[in-house]
Amino acid sequence: MENLRIRNGFQVVSLEIQNAPTVDDALRILEAAYRIDFSTYHLALTVADVVDTPYVRTTYRDAWVARYLLRGYVKVDPIVREGLIRQMAFDWREVEVPQAAHDFLLDAQEHGVGANGYSIPIVDKKRRALFSLNSRKPASEWSNLVETYCHEWLDLAFLIHRKAVFELHGEHDPIPQLGPREKECLYWSALGKTNDEIAEILGLSIHTTQRYLMSARHKLGAASTTLATALAIQLRLINPYGNTQDSGS
User: Fold this and answer.
1) Which of 92, 101, 163, 187 has the CA that lies 20 to 30 A from 249?
2) For the chain, what is the domain count?
3) pLDDT digits over 123-143, tens only?
4) 3-state secondary structure string, the chain?
């Protein structure tokens, strides 16, 4: 019943995160919904020999955050380093831990950080970000949680990313420029049409329709067509609620 409750509440959680006043508030909303212990969002400006993450929001305890910063742990944190070069979401158990990071991980666990985690890399324009969830649940329970909700976390991570970008740049962050066909495909998707139906309406092949939707997702920094459609509406790039088609052109 609890799992069913959370699944049915995914749209509510998404809306609460979109409406949250800050990224910190959004993180805590997600944690409460999925019973996660801690969450962190990093936004990296550069990825080179030195990891540069000037914007960080986390719910870890203040004592651990202070220790992490004072000891420069970002330089040896294997999750951050892996997360800012990977493309796909990953369970922390997949990461090979170098010898130099063993003391760091022991210190983290002594300060209440859970042994289990899941991270979602985000690529948006020239930015890279990393959204991570941390849990003190037993490994088997954590595995079930990841398997059940990882797809939902992917969409929510991108919503939190958009909120972080807005906190940094406000209205000055450039709005992605979508082509007419990309907007048309998102418009019909917003009205509940399948890819096959959109292709037929626009006189395109299925492959071309999928390519336009994928391109729109990449430009909007969205993990799915559903999220891309929601962002396009929010940015007023499309208007599926008018009496006539208005694709924001």
Assistant:
1) 163
2) 2
3) 876 678 999 999 999 999 999
4) CHHHHHHHCHHHHHHHHHHCCCHHHHHHHHHHHHCCCEEEEEEECEECCCEECCEEEECCCHHHHHHHHHCCHHHCCHHHHHHCCCCCCEEHHHCCCCHHHHHHHHHHHHCCCCCEEEEEEEEECCEEEEEEEEECCCHHHHHHHHHHHHHHHHHHHHHHHHHHHHHHHHHHCCCCCCCHHHHHHHHHHHCCCCHHHHHHHHCCCHHHHHHHHHHHHHHHCCCCHHHHHHHHHHCCCCECCCCCCECCC
